[in-house]
Amino acid sequence: NNKIDFSFKHYLGKNIIVTNRSTWGNEQIILAYRSQFNIENVFKKMKDRNIGSWREEFHWTEQKVQIHSFYWDRSILLRALALIRFKNTGVQISMKRMLHCLEDVKEVILNIL
Prior knowledge:
mainly alpha, extended, single chain
């Protein structure tokens, strides 16, 4: 019998990281690998109806679909930037809690420069 038994309960070993980033050093590659959960969390939150996700819209033209996705994409970006600002000031808060605290805000002035 040449079957390999994969029914083990614990995995003890090493990870092999393969990359095409030949100009990156080991530390940068490992940091990027270990932080991939951040983008995975973004995709998970994008599906959460409680904090705003892509909702089906019935648009008649491709241009309107593109505009809808543009606004949705910018809303994801602004939420992420707001959460970063909160955390940079020492406030540890979840995205869901932050949005709840800010839900009564009707106008925002952005100082980009």
